[in-house]
Amino acid sequence: MNYLEQLKNYTKVVADTGDFASISAYKPADATTNPSLIYAASMDAKYSALIDDAIMYAKKETSDKSMQLSKAMDKLAVNFGLKILEIVPGRVSTEVDARLSFDTEATIAKAHQLIALYESNGISRERILIKVASTWEGINAAEKLEKEKIHCNLTLLFSKAQAIRCAEAKVTLISPFVGRILDWHKKDRGVSSIPANEDPGVNSVTEIYHYYKKYDYKTIVMGASFRNMEEIVALAGCDALTISPTLLKELENTEGELTQKLKIEDSKKMYIPHVRVDEKTFRWMMNEDAMATEKLAEGIRKFTEDLIKLEKHIAALL
User: Fold this and answer.
1) What is the reported pLDDT for 128?
2) CA angle (199 as vertex; 198, 202 as ends), nearest 5
3) Which tens digits make up the pLDDT trace of 224-265?
4) Which residues, 6 or more positions from 14, have their beta carbon under 8 angstroms from its beta carbon?
5) What is the CATH number of the domain that holds 96?
6) Which of 10, 32, 63, 274 is deepest in the core (most CB within 10 A)?
7) What is the tens place of the pLDDT at every residue in 47-72?
8) Is 262 helix (H, G, I), strand (E, B) or coil?
9) Do the Cβ atoms of 135 and 102 come closer than 8 Å?
């Protein structure tokens, strides 16, 4: 068996892409998207029908130009999600506008709009994860949405403080960013590489996994943003891993024995202090973690940049 086949025995494999052909090829259980992936896919002519449909929908809904753009953007994100759900048996993650990352009520309102679009197309909210940045405000929004049975994927997660608050908020899933943590530490140390057994991104997700399992939190840990196959192999046994098509192909082309690295029974035996994270604690822990603070802010900016590029493209077509 190749690495990908073996990994699926220990971990739910999720495709990190907006490309339908890749999703079909690797047969993941779920798929995740973000503004950067949708922007890249939207530049491909083969997806023009999804854009055309979003524009037609927006023009039918309203004559207000600014409202048309907002409605077209939401419909485009949902159109990609609908196509993905024709391929995967599980869930798709659809992201809330990154510019709402510090606005709890606006995040909730946008989530309601996205869910309404899915439900109007006959898709149950059980098959959708609303993707929200792991800010204090974003986690609060997710906590309220979960009470409405709107399930959330908390993204741009770089620290234990974010992870603990998400678990206490009873969010469905978190996406800790392995590769971006590695990127920060390489730059900070002035090195081109860090040995796989010392990878700070892998170590962060491992710590979060053990904390969750030790205290029976139900929130799913889904490692994300991988830079190499070794990071994925080191997290075999994590609840879920969302993986790019390039790395899915590398896993599929690699033969050998892949062993389970993360196990609930190991977590239960560990001594891990329990931490309560209120707002003051959360903000202090984030302040003390330069990497998490910088990468969260950078991630929100990057998603916003790609969202604005996509808006300009759609606005021109409108």
Assistant:
1) 98
2) 120
3) 999 999 999 999 999 999 999 999 999 999 999 999 999 999
4) 28, 29, 30, 31, 32, 222, 240, 241, 242, 243
5) 3.20.20.70
6) 32
7) 999 999 999 999 999 999 889 999 99
8) coil
9) yes
Is residue 16 within 8 A of residue 244, CB to CB? The reply is yes
The rounded distance, in Å, linking the Cα atoms of 134 and 180 is 15
Contact by Cβ (8 Å): 266, 272: no
Gap between the Cα atoms of 282 and 263, Å rounded: 28
16-55 residue pLDDT tens: 998 898 899 999 999 998 888 888 888 888 899 999 999 9
Give the Cα separation of 254 and 87 in Å (integer): 25
Q: What is the dihedral of CA 301, 34, 38, 128, to 10 degrees?
A: -150
User: Reduced to 3 states, what is the DSSP secondary structure of residue 108?
Assistant: helix
Task: For residue range 157-216, list pLDDT tens digits in order.
Answer: 999 999 999 999 999 999 999 999 999 999 999 999 998 889 999 999 999 999 999 999
| Cβ atoms within 10 Å of 175's Cβ, excluding its own | 29
Q: pLDDT tens for residues 267-283?
A: 999 999 999 999 999 99
Q: Which of 225, 192, 221 is nearest to 208 (CA)?
A: 221
DSSP 243: E
pLDDT at 81 over 90: yes
Q: Could you give the C-alpha distances from 119 to 6, 123, 144, 242, in angstroms and in order? A: 35, 5, 19, 25
Identified catalytic residue from 71, 75, 110, 131: 131
Determine the straight-line distance between the first and last CA of the chain, rounded to whole angstroms. Answer: 49
In the 8-state DSSP scheme, what is residue 132? Answer: E
Helix axes 48-61, 290-317, angle to 10 degrees: 80
Domain extent for 242: 3-317
What is the domain count for the chain? 1
- For 93-126, the pLDDT digits (tens) are 999 999 999 999 999 999 999 999 999 999 999 9
What are φ and ψ of residue 278, in 5° steps? -90, -175
131 part of the active site = yes
